[in-house]
Please model this.
Amino acid sequence: MATPTIESPRSGRVSPGYSRSSASRGNFEMIAWLFMRLSGALLVVLIFVHLYVNLVTGDGISAIDFGFVAGKWADPLWQIWDLTMLWLAMLHGTNGIRVIINDYAEKNSTRMWLKGVLYTSTVVIVVLGTLVIFTFDPCPVIDGVAHVADYCSAT
Model:
């Protein structure tokens, strides 16, 4: 009786070919791996403190509105806190998707286009999010008319 042979996974498919040398890829991948662990641990702390401050110490979810965010972002600590969450979450997620693209995109051209879209969207979201956090004005003056809400000081 003949022993059945089991083919290697993806044996019929073309394995992705990387043009990088093994030494440079190893160092980059090690740093990326370490970044994922450290950023993940830091994100857990940042997110749980964020949720605790927003939902537990105040009046819960019903108290979160435009005025709440405006008051929170008036303090530079919370601007930096939210900026750190944004940057770490985007870089952590981008690195994870990069690994998935490397694992499953078989053709170099497909891998290049997917990574191009990934990196472009990451840059756009990080830049727009950073601009929103630091240029946020809850009491804007539009065409010389102050749109004053109850939480803005009348000037």
The domain at 25-137 is CATH 1.20.1300.10 (3 helical TM bundles of succinate and fumarate reductases). Helices lie at 22-56, 66-72, 76-104, 108-135.
